Amino acid sequence: MLGNNPNYVLAVEGLTVSFDGFKAVDDLSFYVEPNECRVIIGPNGAGKTTVLDLICGRTKATAGSVNFKGTELLNKREDQIVLAGVGRKFQTPSVYEDLTVFENLELSYPRGHSVFGALAFRRDQEVKARIAEIAETIFLSDLLDEKAAFLSHGQKQWLEIGMLLIQDPELLMLDEPVAGMSVAERKKTAELLNKIIADRSVIVIEHDMGFVADIATRVTVLHQGKTLSEGSMERVQNDPKVVEVYLGH
Ligand code: ADP
Ligand code: MG
Protein backbone atom coordinates (compact mmCIF):
# COMPACT_ATOMS: atom_id res chain seq x y z
CA MET A 1 0.00 0.00 0.00
CA LEU A 2 1.32 3.42 -0.98
CA GLY A 3 -1.43 5.27 0.88
CA ASN A 4 0.74 6.35 3.79
CA ASN A 5 3.69 7.44 1.66
CA PRO A 6 4.44 11.01 2.79
CA ASN A 7 5.26 11.94 -0.81
CA TYR A 8 1.55 11.83 -1.59
CA VAL A 9 -1.17 14.17 -0.41
CA LEU A 10 -3.79 11.91 -1.91
CA ALA A 11 -3.62 8.19 -2.70
CA VAL A 12 -6.63 6.77 -4.52
CA GLU A 13 -6.49 2.99 -4.73
CA GLY A 14 -8.92 0.51 -6.28
CA LEU A 15 -11.68 3.11 -6.21
CA THR A 16 -14.92 1.64 -7.54
CA VAL A 17 -18.54 2.71 -7.61
CA SER A 18 -21.30 0.69 -9.11
CA PHE A 19 -24.68 2.23 -9.98
CA ASP A 20 -27.14 -0.65 -10.45
CA GLY A 21 -24.36 -2.88 -11.73
CA PHE A 22 -22.81 -0.23 -13.99
CA LYS A 23 -19.28 0.65 -12.84
CA ALA A 24 -18.93 4.42 -13.39
CA VAL A 25 -15.52 4.26 -11.67
CA ASP A 26 -13.77 0.93 -11.97
CA ASP A 27 -10.75 -0.04 -9.84
CA LEU A 28 -9.13 3.36 -10.29
CA SER A 29 -5.78 4.22 -8.68
CA PHE A 30 -3.82 7.46 -8.84
CA TYR A 31 -1.55 9.49 -6.56
CA VAL A 32 -1.31 13.25 -6.13
CA GLU A 33 1.82 14.92 -4.78
CA PRO A 34 2.13 18.17 -2.82
CA ASN A 35 2.07 21.27 -5.07
CA GLU A 36 0.83 19.20 -7.97
CA CYS A 37 -1.88 20.27 -10.40
CA ARG A 38 -3.39 17.03 -11.66
CA VAL A 39 -5.75 17.40 -14.60
CA ILE A 40 -8.31 14.71 -15.34
CA ILE A 41 -9.47 14.60 -18.96
CA GLY A 42 -11.59 12.15 -20.90
CA PRO A 43 -14.77 11.78 -22.92
CA ASN A 44 -18.20 12.66 -21.55
CA GLY A 45 -19.44 9.95 -19.23
CA ALA A 46 -15.90 8.70 -18.48
CA GLY A 47 -16.54 9.09 -14.75
CA LYS A 48 -14.56 12.30 -14.09
CA THR A 49 -17.18 14.10 -12.01
CA THR A 50 -17.99 10.87 -10.18
CA VAL A 51 -14.33 10.59 -9.07
CA LEU A 52 -14.58 14.02 -7.41
CA ASP A 53 -17.97 13.06 -5.91
CA LEU A 54 -16.35 9.98 -4.36
CA ILE A 55 -13.36 11.88 -2.95
CA CYS A 56 -15.52 14.60 -1.38
CA GLY A 57 -17.98 12.11 0.12
CA ARG A 58 -21.01 13.10 -1.96
CA THR A 59 -21.19 9.63 -3.49
CA LYS A 60 -20.42 6.47 -1.48
CA ALA A 61 -17.82 4.14 -3.01
CA THR A 62 -18.49 0.45 -3.54
CA ALA A 63 -14.83 -0.45 -2.94
CA GLY A 64 -11.35 1.01 -2.64
CA SER A 65 -9.51 3.57 -0.62
CA VAL A 66 -9.03 7.35 -0.68
CA ASN A 67 -6.17 8.21 1.63
CA PHE A 68 -5.65 11.92 2.30
CA LYS A 69 -2.46 12.69 4.28
CA GLY A 70 -2.69 9.32 6.02
CA THR A 71 -6.43 9.49 6.77
CA GLU A 72 -9.01 7.29 5.07
CA LEU A 73 -11.75 9.52 3.64
CA LEU A 74 -14.17 6.90 2.38
CA ASN A 75 -15.82 6.38 5.78
CA LYS A 76 -16.19 10.12 6.43
CA ARG A 77 -19.08 12.53 5.86
CA GLU A 78 -18.86 15.44 3.40
CA ASP A 79 -18.48 18.04 6.17
CA GLN A 80 -15.73 16.03 7.87
CA ILE A 81 -13.86 15.81 4.56
CA VAL A 82 -14.08 19.60 4.14
CA LEU A 83 -12.72 20.04 7.68
CA ALA A 84 -9.91 17.60 6.91
CA GLY A 85 -8.79 20.05 4.19
CA VAL A 86 -10.45 19.05 0.92
CA GLY A 87 -12.32 21.79 -0.99
CA ARG A 88 -14.55 21.04 -3.97
CA LYS A 89 -15.99 23.36 -6.57
CA PHE A 90 -18.91 22.20 -8.67
CA GLN A 91 -19.45 23.02 -12.34
CA THR A 92 -21.93 25.86 -11.89
CA PRO A 93 -20.89 28.81 -9.73
CA SER A 94 -22.90 29.04 -6.53
CA VAL A 95 -22.13 32.43 -5.04
CA TYR A 96 -24.66 34.52 -3.10
CA GLU A 97 -25.84 36.94 -5.81
CA ASP A 98 -27.36 39.49 -3.40
CA LEU A 99 -24.20 39.76 -1.31
CA THR A 100 -21.05 41.67 -2.17
CA VAL A 101 -17.76 40.03 -3.06
CA PHE A 102 -16.50 40.94 0.44
CA GLU A 103 -19.57 39.41 2.12
CA ASN A 104 -19.33 36.22 0.06
CA LEU A 105 -15.72 35.77 1.16
CA GLU A 106 -16.51 36.73 4.76
CA LEU A 107 -19.27 34.09 4.93
CA SER A 108 -16.80 31.44 3.80
CA TYR A 109 -14.14 32.35 6.36
CA PRO A 110 -13.81 29.37 8.71
CA ARG A 111 -15.68 29.95 11.98
CA GLY A 112 -13.57 29.54 15.08
CA HIS A 113 -14.76 29.73 18.67
CA SER A 114 -16.68 32.93 19.32
CA VAL A 115 -14.53 35.68 20.77
CA PHE A 116 -15.25 38.93 22.63
CA GLY A 117 -13.92 42.45 23.11
CA ALA A 118 -10.34 43.18 22.10
CA LEU A 119 -9.92 39.64 20.84
CA ALA A 120 -12.98 40.00 18.58
CA PHE A 121 -11.52 43.23 17.16
CA ARG A 122 -8.24 41.49 16.41
CA ARG A 123 -10.11 38.66 14.74
CA ASP A 124 -12.06 41.17 12.59
CA GLN A 125 -8.77 42.65 11.43
CA GLU A 126 -7.45 39.18 10.65
CA VAL A 127 -10.54 38.32 8.61
CA LYS A 128 -10.32 41.61 6.67
CA ALA A 129 -6.64 41.07 5.89
CA ARG A 130 -7.31 37.54 4.72
CA ILE A 131 -10.21 38.67 2.51
CA ALA A 132 -7.98 41.38 0.96
CA GLU A 133 -5.29 38.79 0.26
CA ILE A 134 -7.74 36.35 -1.36
CA ALA A 135 -9.43 39.12 -3.39
CA GLU A 136 -6.04 40.03 -4.82
CA THR A 137 -5.36 36.38 -5.76
CA ILE A 138 -8.71 36.07 -7.57
CA PHE A 139 -8.40 39.44 -9.39
CA LEU A 140 -11.34 41.02 -7.53
CA SER A 141 -9.61 43.58 -5.27
CA ASP A 142 -11.38 46.48 -6.99
CA LEU A 143 -14.79 44.81 -6.77
CA LEU A 144 -15.01 43.96 -3.05
CA ASP A 145 -18.14 46.12 -2.57
CA GLU A 146 -19.84 44.99 -5.78
CA LYS A 147 -22.83 42.66 -5.50
CA ALA A 148 -21.94 39.25 -6.91
CA ALA A 149 -24.95 39.49 -9.25
CA PHE A 150 -23.06 42.15 -11.25
CA LEU A 151 -19.94 40.04 -11.81
CA SER A 152 -19.22 38.35 -15.14
CA HIS A 153 -19.55 34.58 -15.31
CA GLY A 154 -15.75 34.26 -15.10
CA GLN A 155 -15.53 36.58 -12.09
CA LYS A 156 -18.20 34.51 -10.33
CA GLN A 157 -16.11 31.39 -10.94
CA TRP A 158 -13.08 33.16 -9.42
CA LEU A 159 -15.14 34.31 -6.45
CA GLU A 160 -16.21 30.76 -5.79
CA ILE A 161 -12.58 29.62 -5.98
CA GLY A 162 -11.80 32.41 -3.48
CA MET A 163 -14.56 31.15 -1.16
CA LEU A 164 -12.78 27.79 -1.11
CA LEU A 165 -9.27 29.27 -0.84
CA ILE A 166 -10.20 31.28 2.24
CA GLN A 167 -10.63 27.95 4.03
CA ASP A 168 -7.04 27.11 3.05
CA PRO A 169 -7.65 23.56 1.76
CA GLU A 170 -4.62 21.35 1.18
CA LEU A 171 -6.44 19.77 -1.73
CA LEU A 172 -8.70 21.78 -4.00
CA MET A 173 -10.85 20.06 -6.64
CA LEU A 174 -12.37 22.01 -9.53
CA ASP A 175 -14.84 20.64 -12.08
CA GLU A 176 -14.50 22.40 -15.46
CA PRO A 177 -13.64 25.81 -13.99
CA VAL A 178 -13.13 27.61 -17.34
CA ALA A 179 -16.29 26.42 -19.11
CA GLY A 180 -18.00 29.52 -20.51
CA MET A 181 -15.01 31.78 -19.88
CA SER A 182 -13.43 34.11 -22.44
CA VAL A 183 -9.90 33.42 -23.68
CA ALA A 184 -8.55 36.25 -21.48
CA GLU A 185 -10.36 34.84 -18.43
CA ARG A 186 -8.94 31.36 -19.16
CA LYS A 187 -5.41 32.78 -19.23
CA LYS A 188 -5.99 34.51 -15.88
CA THR A 189 -7.48 31.35 -14.40
CA ALA A 190 -4.33 29.44 -15.44
CA GLU A 191 -2.27 32.15 -13.73
CA LEU A 192 -4.45 31.80 -10.63
CA LEU A 193 -4.01 28.02 -10.48
CA ASN A 194 -0.26 28.24 -11.03
CA LYS A 195 -0.10 30.67 -8.11
CA ILE A 196 -2.20 28.66 -5.64
CA ILE A 197 -0.38 25.33 -6.08
CA ALA A 198 2.54 26.91 -4.21
CA ASP A 199 0.55 26.09 -1.04
CA ARG A 200 -1.61 23.10 -1.97
CA SER A 201 -2.46 20.41 -4.50
CA VAL A 202 -5.20 20.81 -7.07
CA ILE A 203 -7.25 18.36 -9.11
CA VAL A 204 -8.94 19.90 -12.15
CA ILE A 205 -11.34 18.33 -14.63
CA GLU A 206 -11.00 20.08 -17.95
CA HIS A 207 -11.62 19.77 -21.70
CA ASP A 208 -9.76 22.82 -23.06
CA MET A 209 -6.38 21.34 -24.01
CA GLY A 210 -4.71 24.75 -24.30
CA PHE A 211 -5.73 25.46 -20.72
CA VAL A 212 -4.64 21.98 -19.62
CA ALA A 213 -1.19 22.61 -21.13
CA ASP A 214 -0.95 25.86 -19.12
CA ILE A 215 -1.70 24.26 -15.75
CA ALA A 216 -1.02 20.51 -15.65
CA THR A 217 1.78 18.97 -13.65
CA ARG A 218 0.45 15.61 -14.78
CA VAL A 219 -2.61 14.44 -16.70
CA THR A 220 -4.81 11.42 -16.07
CA VAL A 221 -6.95 10.33 -18.99
CA LEU A 222 -10.09 8.58 -17.81
CA HIS A 223 -12.11 6.25 -20.01
CA GLN A 224 -14.99 4.05 -18.86
CA GLY A 225 -14.04 4.66 -15.22
CA LYS A 226 -10.44 3.52 -15.68
CA THR A 227 -7.09 5.17 -16.37
CA LEU A 228 -6.41 5.04 -20.09
CA SER A 229 -3.13 6.95 -19.85
CA GLU A 230 -1.23 9.04 -17.33
CA GLY A 231 1.82 11.31 -17.32
CA SER A 232 3.00 14.62 -18.70
CA MET A 233 0.78 16.52 -21.12
CA GLU A 234 3.19 15.64 -23.92
CA ARG A 235 3.16 11.96 -23.06
CA VAL A 236 -0.64 11.59 -22.98
CA GLN A 237 -1.12 13.75 -26.07
CA ASN A 238 1.12 11.42 -28.04
CA ASP A 239 -0.40 8.23 -26.65
CA PRO A 240 -2.21 6.53 -29.57
CA LYS A 241 -4.89 5.15 -27.21
CA VAL A 242 -5.72 8.71 -26.09
CA VAL A 243 -5.83 10.01 -29.65
CA GLU A 244 -8.18 7.17 -30.55
CA VAL A 245 -10.77 7.53 -27.79
CA TYR A 246 -10.55 11.24 -26.98
CA LEU A 247 -8.24 13.72 -28.67
CA GLY A 248 -8.91 12.48 -32.19
CA HIS A 249 -12.56 13.61 -31.96
P1 ADP B 1 -18.03 12.75 -16.72
O1 ADP B 1 -17.93 13.79 -15.64
O2 ADP B 1 -16.72 12.12 -17.07
O3 ADP B 1 -18.69 13.28 -17.97
P2 ADP B 1 -19.77 11.38 -14.87
O4 ADP B 1 -18.86 11.07 -13.75
O5 ADP B 1 -20.70 12.52 -14.68
O6 ADP B 1 -18.94 11.54 -16.22
O7 ADP B 1 -20.66 10.10 -15.20
C1 ADP B 1 -20.10 8.81 -15.45
C2 ADP B 1 -21.22 7.82 -15.69
O8 ADP B 1 -21.85 7.51 -14.46
C3 ADP B 1 -22.28 8.31 -16.64
O9 ADP B 1 -22.70 7.22 -17.43
C4 ADP B 1 -23.39 8.75 -15.70
O10 ADP B 1 -24.63 8.66 -16.31
C5 ADP B 1 -23.24 7.77 -14.55
N1 ADP B 1 -23.67 8.32 -13.25
C6 ADP B 1 -23.09 9.35 -12.60
N2 ADP B 1 -23.68 9.57 -11.40
C7 ADP B 1 -24.67 8.65 -11.31
C8 ADP B 1 -25.65 8.32 -10.31
N3 ADP B 1 -25.73 9.02 -9.16
N4 ADP B 1 -26.49 7.30 -10.56
C9 ADP B 1 -26.41 6.58 -11.71
N5 ADP B 1 -25.51 6.81 -12.68
C10 ADP B 1 -24.66 7.83 -12.50
MG1 MG C 1 -18.47 15.83 -15.55
Explain this structure.
This protein is an alpha/beta fold and 249 residues long. The protein has one domain (10-247): P-loop containing nucleotide triphosphate hydrolases (Rossmann fold, 3-Layer(aba) Sandwich). The chain has helices at residues 48-55, 78-84, 101-108, 117-137, 153-165, 183-196, 209-215, 233-237, 240-247, and strands at residues 10-19, 22-32, 37-41, 63-68, 71-72, 86-89, 171-175, 201-205, 218-223, 226-231. The strands form 2 sheets. The chain has a 6-stranded mixed β-sheet, with helices on both faces. The protein has a 4-stranded antiparallel β-sheet with strand order 2-1-4-5, with helices on one face. Strand 1 (10-19) and strand 2 (22-32) form a beta hairpin. Helix 3 (101-108) packs across helix 4 and helix 3 (101-108) runs parallel beside helix 5. The radius of gyration is 19 Å and the shape is globular. The two termini are 37 Å apart. The mean pLDDT is 93. The structure holds adenosine-5'-diphosphate and magnesium ion (MG). The site of adenosine-5'-diphosphate (ADP) has 10 residues, from helix 1. Adenosine-5'-diphosphate binds next to helix 1.
What are the bound molecules? Answer: adenosine-5'-diphosphate, magnesium ion
What would you give as the CATH superfamily?
P-loop containing nucleotide triphosphate hydrolases
Structural class comes to: alpha/beta
Which sheet architecture does the biggest sheet show?
6 strands, mixed
Just name the CATH architecture: 3-Layer(aba) Sandwich
Q: Would you list the SSEs in sequence order as H and E? A: EEEHEEHEHHHEHEHEEHH
User: What gap, in angstroms, lies between the N and C termini?
Assistant: 37 Å
Q: How large a portion of the residues is in β-strands, by DSSP E?
A: 15-25%
Q: How much helix is in the residues?
A: 25-40%
Strands of the widest sheet, in order across it, are 6-7-8-3-9-10
- How many helices in DSSP terms? 9
Apparent shape: globular
Low-confidence stretches: none
CATH class: Alpha Beta
In the CATH scheme, what's the topology name?
Rossmann fold
Number of domains: 1
What is the β-strand count?
10
Please, what is the average pLDDT?
Answer: 93
Cα gyration radius (Å):
19 Å
